[in-house]
Amino acid sequence: MQSTDKFLAAAIVAALLVSQLISAVAAHAANVAQGRRLAMTYCARCHAIDKVSPSPLSIAPPFRTLHQRYPVENLQEALAEGIIVGHPVMPQFRFEADQIGDFLAFLKSLE
After folding, report:
1. How many domains does the chain have?
2. Rounded to 10 degrees, what is the CA torsion of 23, 28, 29, 32?
3. Domain holding 18: CATH number?
4. Distance in angstroms (rounded) separating the CA atoms of residues 66 and 71
5. DSSP code per residue over the chain
6. Could you give the C-alpha distances from 63 to 19, 48, 56, 73, 79, in angstroms and in order?
7. pTM of the complete model
8. Residue 48 belongs to what domain range?
C-alpha cells in the first residue's frame, strides 16, 4: 500500500470515528433536553430545575443538589415504580423506561 493510500485510509477511519462521536454527543444532548422537558412538565411547579434558582416550594429540594444527597442513578427504580413520597405535597407519578434515562441524564447535567 502506498503512503497516499495509507493516509486516505487513515483519514476515512478518523472521519468515521468523529462522525460517531458527534452522533453520540447529539444523542446525549437530546436525552438531556428531553429530560429537561420532563422536569418542566412534572417537577418545576415545586422544584428548581436549573443551576441557580430557589425551588418555588421551599420544602422541595432544588434538583441541582440531589447528587449531594445520593447518586441520582439511585432514583431509577423509584421513577419506574412510582415515587410516592418525596416531600409531603409531592404527587405520585411514574416514568417510562426511556423517560427515566432522559430524566437522569438531565439531573446529571446539573451536577
Report:
1. 1
2. 160
3. 1.10.760
4. 8
5. --HHHHHHHHHHHHHHHHHHHHHHHHHHHHHHHHHHHHHHHHTTTTS--SSSPPPSSTTSPPGGGHHHHS-GGGHHHHHHH-B--SSTTPPPB---HHHHHHHHHHHHHT-
6. 33, 6, 12, 13, 15
7. 0.69
8. 3-109
How far apart are the C-alpha atoms of 18 and 11, rounded to whole Å? 10
List pLDDT tens digits, range 73-87. Answer: 888 888 888 776 666
C-alpha 19: how far from its chain's center? 22
Cα dihedral 62→87→102→76 (10° resolution): 130
Q: Which residue has the higher pLDDT, 57 or 16?
A: 57
Identity of the residue numbered 44: A
